[in-house]
Design brief:
With 798 residues, this protein is an all-alpha fold. Among the domains are: 96 residues, no CATH class; 169 residues. It has 38 helices and 2 strands.
């Protein structure tokens, strides 16, 4: 009831000017009818024409005939003999008020006109929205349609200026859009500038780095810098301040082109549908799909690609006109569905790849066949974006050759430029190169890179496209030598990097196959400075995982440079920033677990594992940068590596260059015996530690590494009995493990220790591996005292 009362009050406020105008018309009509009849009859005889016809040549005949009730001839006592333009203007104003009231145009008060003018001349978005809200809070004045259009026009203009980044660049582009130096055409009104600004928002919005804002309620940075302003404007519109007239859809479309998130755009899209069931315009659907599938900045924001595909199906079923941009966003949604572009060593299942490829072909067929609204013309900026969507969707489906073919169909050089203007975007090159890298075709990627360098740089890419390309380089670090050069160029240009790209560069530098001209520790320090300049993640789990990845990369870089003080500087910075009891410092200390990758001393390896894993409370094992199972595996690898180093280079500092395994005969008898004892002690300790670590986890025992340790122990055993026992145990471990891990080197060592032929061992361990595995499992069950044998399925997959 209250809402109905408020609505009727607004209707009465609109009708009040109409009543006043009609009442004023009747008064003037009666007054002029009684006073001006003789003068009207005498006017043609004296040669004086009707002043309305000469004064207003652009008015229609209906306006001229109705003006006889508002104008008096020269003989009336109210108007002078020669009527002035001022007197005529007063009468015309009254007539226009009546016309506006009869046509249903809302009446604008002086305050509303002043507010609309202030909104048009506002310096930024915030001031325009604040002016609009002040007008909405007034008790006697409401919100009219011209005021809403003034607000949307001003906001779109400010958004276009933000996309350009420089006001002078915006005005230069506006002048260039006019295309003439003539004063007749240089005068640009608000409507023309609005059309230009809206077109620039559509063109630049796909590749723009979207702003971010800090949400106090969530406590983290989210996407959509203009969400708050648009939400306040939408709240005013929901309250009915705009009167009984519906909000125009073009106003809602202008609000959707601001820097908003997809959820805000979805609310505007639903409101634009209207109460009568008419769907929103195609422009709003395209904008909503763009926000649902577009590029992300800084890894912030979700992308509901499934909802975007539903919107695409709805647009196809509606039977209306569909633009090429709609199909482009459908390809972007399919690219998002692959969900493999942010995982360097993850490939989509072949079935899913084939399904994705079939979906891409269906979208392409709809564009080429013109099943909806005729064949679409693939040209210009929209055509470039469509080809880019095809390239990245094909790359996500594993069709790297198709991606290269699509890129070759575009106009890559100035000599190939035609009326289509299908110039490859930097993102098109990046996704084609990333598709080649993920499949291991480094030569094709380098060929595309040589063409990419002729027109663009890595800074030309959007941050998410750059992230996809950098992560794809991890698949070809062993196949190409230019990875370090590209990372070095990104770091040294001084333009900075966002947080995900910084992490990707650090991971590339941590690889031992990447070579750089500058010291890696200096590049890593600069990259950590870039990382520290960005907003860190606030979710605890994601923050811990990302920081542990950063610390791991820095640790591996620092270990490769003996004179580097990178880790010391990082520790000092974290202590100064967070304190000594901060979890970030604990995560930094846990990074030393990666010393198991590089240590050459078996005692240091055991001490590191005991300090970081065994002495850690049980409930805090989950905070390690790696799982405990992986840490155990790293320790076994470290022990095996130390045994090999001791066997080939000795255990002391003075005999690093000698080869004990092949030069025992050149040593004295005492030195030879001492070396054998040391090697036997190291191998025995390694076997003991492996069995102790996996005493309660027999399913994950690294059988091939344990068998190699047993062979080293048997090779340097003092007695023949121990040698034979170690060889038999090594055969037992190889039988328990998979057959793919049995190498010819292990077979040679066993044959040498047990004095057996290699053919016999190969036949037993490789050809008869299932039987040997069953025998080994039966022996293990009997040793544990089981009364029932292991089930057949467990014997096969244990």
């Amino acid at each position: 009831m209250l809402a109905y009362t408020q609505r009727m009050q607004r209707v009465f406020r609109v009708r009040e000017p109409l009543k006043k105008a009609v009442r004023r018309q009747q008064q003037l009509k009666l007054l002029y009818k009684s006073k001006s009849r003789p003068a009207v009859e005498a006017a043609p005889q004296n040669g004086h024409p009707d002043p309305n016809v000469g004064a207003h040549p652009c008015r229609s005949p209906t306006h001229i005939s109705s003006a006889h009730f508002f104008h008096t001839p020269t003989s009336t006592p109210f108007v002078s003999d020669s009527p002035s333009a001022c007197d005529l203007g007063r009468l015309v104003v009254a007539n226009r008020t009546l016309q506006h009231a009869l046509l249903g145009v809302p009446y604008e008060s002086k305050r509303q006109r002043q507010a609309a003018d202030a909104i048009q001349h506002s310096p930024n978005k915030s001031s325009a929205v604040e002016t609009f809200l002040l007008l909405a809070q007034s008790t006697d004045d409401g919100i009219t349609t011209p005021t809403l259009r003034a607000l949307s026009t001003a906001l779109v203009r400010h958004q276009a200026r933000e996309l350009f980044g420089d006001p002078q660049a915006y005005h230069a582009a506006l002048s260039a859009a006019v295309g003439s130096e003539d004063d007749r055409w240089r005068a640009i009104d608000a409507a023309d500038e609005h059309v230009f600004a809206l077109s620039q928002c559509r063109a630049l919005g796909r590749y723009a780095e979207k702003g971010s804002r800090f949400s106090p309620s969530l406590g983290l940075t989210v996407e959509g810098a203009d969400d708050d302003d648009v939400a306040r404007v939408a709240h005013v519109l929901r309250q009915g301040r705009a009167g009984p007239f519906p909000v125009p859809t073009d106003v809602l479309a202008d609000l959707a082109h601001l820097d908003v998130s997809w959820s805000t755009a979805l609310r505007l899209w639903r409101r634009a549908g209207g109460p009568c069931g008419a769907g929103p315009p195609v422009e709003m659907t395209d904008r909503l799909m763009a926000l649902m599938t577009g590029y992300r900045s800084g890894g912030i924001g979700s992308r509901p690609w499934q909802e975007a595909l539903r919107l695409y199906e709805r647009a196809l079923d509606s039977g209306g006109a569909i633009s090429l941009t709609t199909h482009t966003h459908a390809l972007d949604a399919l690219w998002r569905s692959a969900d493999s572009f942010h995982r360097a060593h993850y490939n989509v299942a072949p079935v899913e790849r084939e399904r994705l490829w079939q979906a891409v072909m269906r979208v392409r067929a709809k564009v080429e066949d013109g099943c909806c609204c005729g064949r679409l013309r693939i040209a210009g900026p929209e055509g470039c974006a469509y080809m880019e969507g095809l390239i990245k969707a094909s790359g996500a489906a594993g069709r790297w050759d198709v991606a290269i073919g699509l890129l070759s169909d575009m106009e890559r050089t100035s000599g190939e430029t035609s009326y289509r203007l299908l110039i490859p975007t930097p993102e098109a090159y990046a996704f084609a190169m990333a598709a080649c890298n993920r499949e291991g075709h480094a030569a094709h990627s380098e060929a595309l890179w040589s063409m990419f360098e002729l027109h663009y740089t890595l800074r030309s890419l959007h941050s998410e496209a750059l992230l996809v390309y950098l992560q794809s380089l991890r698949c070809v670090v062993t196949l190409t030598t230019t990875v370090g050069e590209k990372v070095e160029r990104l770091v040294q240009d001084g333009a900075g990097l966002d947080r995900p790209c910084t992490v990707a560069c650090l991971q590339l530098l941590a690889s031992q196959h990447v070579r750089t001209a500058t010291r890696k520790s200096a590049l890593a320090a600069e990259l950590f400075h870039y990382y520290d300049s960005n907003a860190w993640l606030q979710q605890p789990l994601a923050r811990r995982m990302e920081l542990q990845s950063v610390f791991r990369s820095c640790y591996l870089v620092a270990t490769s440079d003996a004179s580097s003080d990178l880790m010391k500087r990082l520790k000092d910075h974290l202590t100064l920033t967070f304190g000594t009891d901060a979890p970030e410092l604990e995560w930094f200390e846990d990074t030393k677990i990666y010393a198991l990758h590089t240590t050459l001393d078996w005692k240091d390896a055991l001490e590191t594992y005991a300090r970081l894993v065994e002495r850690r409370p049980r409930h805090r094992e989950k905070f390690l940068p790696i799982p405990v199972r992986q840490a155990r595996h790293m320790l076994v690898q470290a022990l095996l590596r130390c045994c090999h180093i001791a066997a080939h280079c000795g255990s002391g500092q003075d005999d690093r260059d000698c080869n004990l395994s092949s030069s025992f005969m050149l040593l004295e008898e005492d030195a030879q015996e001492k070396a054998r004892e040391e090697l036997f002690a190291i191998a025995s300790r390694g076997v003991f530690e492996v069995r102790r670590l996996y005493a309660e986890d027999e399913c994950n025992v690294p059988h091939e590494m344990l068998s190699e340790l047993l062979l080293l122990e048997a090779n340097y055993s003092p007695t023949r009995t121990q040698r034979n026992s170690g060889g038999v145990q090594a055969i037992h471990q190889l039988a328990l493990g998979p057959a793919a891990r049995i190498t010819s080197n292990l077979i040679d060592q066993i044959s040498e220790i047990l004095s057996l032929s290699e053919a016999h061992l190969t036949s037993f361990l490789l050809d008869g591996h299932p039987m040997a595995r069953d025998t080994a499992l039966s022996a293990a069950d009997a040793k544990r005292g089981k009364w029932q044998s292991t089930p057949l399925l467990e014997r096969a997959y244990r």
